[in-house]
């Protein structure tokens, strides 16, 4: 049976998550990921560098708009777990051990009724952290099983299309985490992937869909119905709107896919981002390249501050 606690040998290699915002919500995510990457290659970093991340976890410097950034905490926890197992930064060992426990407890408390830790895209990293946990108890195992079931359901629903998000999920499906890269098993059998057989849907799919695009954060506010081929991404909706005139936008490439940097000439400022909202008020958990609107949906581009 699949469970959180792993044997001695453990799993391998995001939006950031938060992908919802289409850009990283805090530098602590990259900070933790950098320490983790160096650690799995047995590269020691100075105690002062590790100390900054420890301080952030100890003093809750991983919050976003009042909410816990689960993926940031999970990456920090994985980095600390790697440091502990590698016996690096031994002078900080006690603080590192406490920080691992703190990160694990915060992730567990962030579980939703659906089973996710935070949201669907932060759950793989959260599970990687919990899989490395020596914490006993049925609560941990049940939480992980529920999270895995939710992930498998989302996977079947096509939620994972972005390569970065998939790279965080694959280790979990193989009962591994990034920490296992400390000592990879290069002789492990390789799995050959077979293309899935797709059964054509019997339902009639409309050739074109209509998406209402709104931008209330500019003056005058923009609101227009955009017609695009069924199956188009939100990015293709924006491209069509720009092609029709009266709308313009800019993006910047990232590992998580393109994220919006400007809309209608309005550039994001310090601690700002363009949030993607599905009416009436549901933030999207995917970026513009991955989200595919349905016919009749209203999508709002909202400039928010964090």
TrEMBL record:
Entry binding sites for cyanocob(III)alamin: 26-30, 71, 119, 168, 259-260, 274-276, 284, 306
Listed GO MF terms: cobalamin binding; metal ion binding
GO cellular component: extracellular space
SUPFAM superfamilies, per database record: Family 10 polysaccharide lyase (SSF81853)
Keyword 4Fe-4S tagged: no
Main location: secreted
UniProt superkingdom: Eukaryota
Keyword Iron part of the UniProt annotation: no
InterPro entries: Cbl-bd_prot, Cobalamin_Transport
One GO biological process term: cobalt ion transport
Subcellular location per the Swiss-Prot or TrEMBL entry: Secreted
PANTHER family: TRANSCOBALAMIN-1/GASTRIC INTRINSIC FACTOR, TRANSCOBALAMIN-2
Subunit details: Interacts with CD320 (via LDL-receptor class A domains).
Protein name: Transcobalamin-2
Biological source species: Myotis myotis
């Amino acid at each position: 049976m699949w469970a959180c606690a792993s044997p001695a040998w453990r799993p391998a290699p995001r939006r950031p998550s938060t992908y919802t915002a289409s850009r990283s919500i805090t530098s602590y995510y990259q900070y933790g990921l950098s320490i983790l990457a160096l650690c799995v290659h047995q590269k020691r970093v100075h105690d002062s560098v590790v100390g900054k991340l420890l301080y952030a976890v100890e003093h809750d410097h991983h919050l976003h708009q009042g909410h816990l950034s689960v993926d940031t905490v999970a990456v920090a926890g994985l980095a600390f777990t790697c440091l502990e197992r590698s016996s690096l930064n031994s002078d900080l060992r006690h603080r590192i051990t406490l920080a691992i426990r703190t990160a694990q407890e915060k992730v567990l408390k962030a579980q939703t009724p659906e089973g996710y830790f935070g949201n669907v895209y932060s759950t793989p990293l959260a599970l990687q952290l919990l899989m490395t946990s020596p914490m006993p108890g049925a609560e941990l195992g049940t939480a992980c099983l529920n999270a895995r079931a939710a992930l498998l359901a989302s996977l079947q629903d096509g939620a994972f299309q972005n390569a970065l998000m998939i790279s965080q999920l694959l280790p979990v499906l193989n009962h591994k985490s990034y920490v296992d890269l400390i000592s990879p098993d290069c002789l492990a059998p390789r799995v050959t992937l077979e293309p899935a057989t797709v059964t054509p849907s019997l339902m009639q799919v409309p050739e074109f869909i209509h998406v209402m695009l709104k931008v209330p954060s500019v003056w005058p506010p923009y609101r227009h119905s955009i017609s695009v081929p069924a199956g188009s991404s939100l990015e293709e909706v924006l491209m069509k709107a720009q092609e029709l005139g009266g709308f313009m936008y800019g993006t910047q490439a990232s590992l998580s896919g393109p994220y919006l940097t400007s809309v209608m000439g309005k550039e994001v400022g310090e601690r700002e981002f363009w949030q993607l909202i599905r009416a009436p008020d549901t933030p999207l958990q995917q970026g513009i390249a991955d989200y595919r609107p349905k016919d009749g949906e209203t999508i709002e581009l909202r400039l928010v501050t964090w």
